[in-house]
Amino acid sequence: MSTGPSDRPAPSGLREVFAARLREALRTGDRGHDPSYTRRAYREAACLLARFDPRLLRLPGERRATGRALLELVDDCTTLGRPDRPEWTLKADVRERALRGLAGPEAARRVLASNIGGLPAEPGPERFALAHLFGNPPATDRLTADELADALQAVLWLAQVPRVSGLPDPTALQHALERARLLEPLERLVRQPFQGRGRELRELRRFVEGPGGEPASVRSPAEAPPGPVPPLVVHGPGGMGKSTLLAAFVLGGARDRADGFPFVYIDFERPTLSLQEPVTLIAEAARQLGIQYPARRAELDALAEEGQEAARSQREGQDRVTQLQELATTRAVLGRSSSQEYQLRATGQESGLIRRVADVLVRAVADGKSSPGQPDPPLVVVIDSFEAAQYRGSPALGRTWAIYQSLRSVYPRLRFIVSGRAPVDHPAKTLTPLDIELGELDREAAVGVLVSCGIQDPLVARELADRVGGHPLSLKLAARAATLAGPTAGRAGELIRSLPERRREVLRRVDQMLVQGILYDRILSHIADPDVRRLAHPALALRVVTPELVRDVLAEPCGLRVPTPERARALFGELSRLDMVEPVGPDAVRYRRDVRAIMLRLPGGDRTAVMRAIERRAVDHYAARDGLEARAEEIYHRLRLEEDPRSVEERWLPGVERFLAGAQQDMTPRAAGLLTARLGGGAPDRVTAGADQEDWERIAAREVEDLLAQGFAEAAYERIGRRRPWTPCSPLHALFAETLNRLGRRPEARQAVADALGTAERAGCGERQLELLLLSARLAQEAGDRRGADRVLRAAEELAAGLGADLEAMGALLARARLTADGAAAGQEADRQLAERLQEVPDAVLAERPVLVRAVASQIYERAPGALDHALEVVGLPHDDETLDELGAAMRRATGRQPALLGRVMEILNDAAGPTRPQAGGAPTGIAGILRLARDRGTLDALARRLLAVPDRSGEIAAGVAAAMGAGSGGGATAFRPADRAPGPGGAGAERAAR
After folding, report:
1. Which of 178-192, 518-532, 566-580 has the lowest mean pLDDT?
2. Is 276 exposed, middle or buried (0-12, 13-18, 19+ CB in 10 A)?
3. Residue 465's pLDDT band (boundaries 50, 70, 90)?
């Protein structure tokens, strides 16, 4: 018996080996000659099928399938489906040859008719193809998006069959499909029959069509003054139907051939769009308008792609600002100047891009006019789910105002509609928005909703509407509860009597919460399994439910015994089948957000002993587990239990933020204050009023930072003084001085810094001291007191060193190097110390602060020749467009002054772009295009390192790499620079001149 290694495959591989050998034995591939008659016949039988079961594929005339297709087509197909239910599809080249080999329409009809009975009942390209071959194809203008996709596929197949005629134009079908896809998100919102809202629809039509745009409730068209039409805000409580109303309105206009209008529908809940990146709105607008105006599609698609590129570049810029704001010694100087630069640059970029989109739209509309004097149709732009950006000071809101103004300047018939909160007073606004507030549906519409949801008895529907009111969500809950109660009038009457009678308007909101809670309880009471019924309501306390949580967290407080994982899994399985839960991953479900939001808001509903016991067990459960998601859930439940925010904050880990987004709505104002302070964004008045002082200060500080970055110092001053005195370590001390300085009150600003420094020192707030010292130095330099500034910066270096904060010390030293850049001895000393510190700090630490490292390298490169190469190795260049502009301008300057360098520079560029770089069409041939290609291929840093080795006597290339390295890092050309010193050859002035 052999004990050596065996050549025999392991049992798990025997099936694969056998299959390979069988395949080889049965192989019927084209071995240098045409396929057999039988094989061609099976190819033709399958060529008009998207997919098929080879065991069931029949040839024309066969009564039953022989299964021979398994052997004949084994090499011609791609396998889909499961092993126990095989599904094959012909390879593209095989399908094409088979289609072209068919004898004509009659042959196509025979092969398709032989196999159509074995296909699923749902629509598919096969059914459209067969209908056309029999001479009765469906009208394409009535097809859904999926049906149009099937029709297009069928037409592309049939076009290859000899002598098939009368096919729809595939280009027109493609356009119809794209338009249908464009309308799909709106159609999903109005899937159920749209009820009521006649007054609101009339107001929207008047806003869009009228001369002044005012809704009927505000002003009649005859009273509308000439001038620009302000945006319209549609607002109301959650679940009231804002999105459905706007979807119904836009669909009506999009389908009206006579009086339709071009539209853009932006839903910021889509993952490809970002509230914090308004340029994504522009890219999506260009994409949607390109679908509506196919003749201008190429231009608009190019602008959409440019918008996506701009978004990627802006993310890099925002990350740079964030990094500079995180260190105390870069926050007050580089951080705030870079933040303002970023907002100005982004606003300008977005305004220019939307104007170009509007210019193409003007030409597209002109193309379709019957006469030059025909007025332009209104352009309706709808922005949905905008709530998160609607707060005073929001940069996204400010930049959206700029987009609106720029778009209106080119296309005056713009109608801008926003769905979100009531209009917010933002300093960037130039017009007072109009608004439509959505209230409850009227009685007739409420009855219509109940009937559309399955209530067949009109009397029951009317009585339910009288008790429930006109809140759309309450009506759907009532219909579900009545359906579960059964069709008998007695049970429906019992449900109606359990609901409170409607009261005065002032109590309506309380009534709605109570009604919704009762309805949910009635729905839950119909769960058949008593154990699942006992879990269902308490499980609302958890954001996610898993089998493990059923056993470890829910079971005991609910009075259940769950002895085994199998029993826990069985209960979880039953719970996951409830129609109010949805899957969130393998073995994990959650209650629908509207369900939890309402049930947790009910008075006392989330404070029962059972719910609190579950919250406490959830804290213990998650605290014993590793990972950011577990820590986020622990924090969530601690805050729900109203633990002290300061003690909860001790459990915070970087990265938990993304798991806690939106959790504020489940919290008390105090707990929501901590989350808002940590997560960012605006806070409603009830949250700011209830937040701890420390959390309020952080919320206010972020808002003031945003206002200052946008240039609104007056608004920042008004915001900052609402709640005093501040805590000793508050960020508002430095921001108050910054605001005073921006307002021109410089002596007051310097005094405010001095006072705050004393307070911070007494309280032992080292980080706040560093920020204030850097701000003090900058204010001293601006006042002409350079010696005072130098003295303060040295004190900041000493403090940072004493705190053991190497990167903070590097930031302070960088500020001193920039301050003394024109002084030979002082400048050399600061640069030398900065170079030494750059070498001393471990690369792993430097890699955590790439923006600081780049700024340092760009500052000292002349006196520390290896600094740029070191920075390129450790952190690389930024990847935004400004970096490429700086680098490209330097290369043009250097080769312009020294033409002999051109060959070497072009060799480096071509190597970075790669040998397979395309040469035709839109291939990049200039420096800018090649640099972008190098960035996309990840070779930009290697390109820059090779450039540094070019023997450039002018120093332009090194200066350009340094400028690219420090691009956007807070005004490297201006921060701490004496007023009488001009920019150097690699600075911003030279770069602009080169352009």
Report:
1. 518-532
2. middle
3. confident
Distance CA 808, CA 826 (A): 20
Amino acid at 882: E
Question: What's phi and psi for 661, nearest 5 deg?
Answer: -60, 130
Q: Is residue 988's pLDDT more than 80?
A: no
Neighbours of 597 (CB within 10 A): 17
The span from the CA of 38 to the CA of 30, in Å, is 13
Q: Give the list of residues 6+ apart from residue 451 with CB closer than 8 angstroms, or none.
A: 458, 461
Phi/psi at 528 (5° precision): -70, -45
Distance CA 579, CA 841 (A): 57
* pLDDT at residue 823, as a whole number: 58
Please report which confidence band the pLDDT of residue 681 belongs to, taking 50, 70 and 90 as the band edges: confident
**Residue 364 buriedness (CB in 10 A; 0-12 / 13-18 / 19+):** buried
Instruction: Tell me the C-alpha distance between 622 and 410, whole Å.
Output: 55
Is the distance from CB of 691 to CB of 670 less than 8 angstroms?
yes
- Cα dihedral 934/939/940/944 (nearest 10): -130
Could you tell me whether strands 85-90 and 434-437 are parallel, antiparallel, or unpaired per DSSP bridges?
unpaired
How would residue 212 be classed by pLDDT, with cut points 50, 70 and 90?
Answer: low
CB atoms within 10 A of CB 810: 28
For the ranges 36-45, 265-274, 715-724, the maximum mean pLDDT occurs at: 36-45
Measured distance CA(596)–CA(706) in Å, rounded: 33
User: What is the C-alpha to C-alpha distance for residues 259 and 241, in angstroms, rounded to an integer?
Assistant: 25
- Is 449 in contact with 240 (CB distance < 8 Å)? no
Query: Do 945 and 872 form a contact (C-beta atoms < 8 A)?
Result: yes
Nearest to 493 by CA among 528, 467, 512: 467
Which tokens belong to 878?
A: 């930024």
Amino acid identity for residue 618 in this structure = A
Q: Before 978, cis peptide (omega within 30)?
A: no
Using one digit for the tens of pLDDT, what is the confidence trace for 217-276?
444 434 444 578 999 999 887 778 888 899 999 998 888 766 679 999 998 888 788 878
Whole-prediction pTM: 0.84
pLDDT digits (tens, 9 = 90+) for 597-623: 777 766 554 457 888 999 999 999 999
Give the CA angle between residues 957, 963, 968 to the nearest 5°: 160
**Residues in a beta bridge with 220:** none
Cα separation, 189 vs 365, whole angstroms: 28
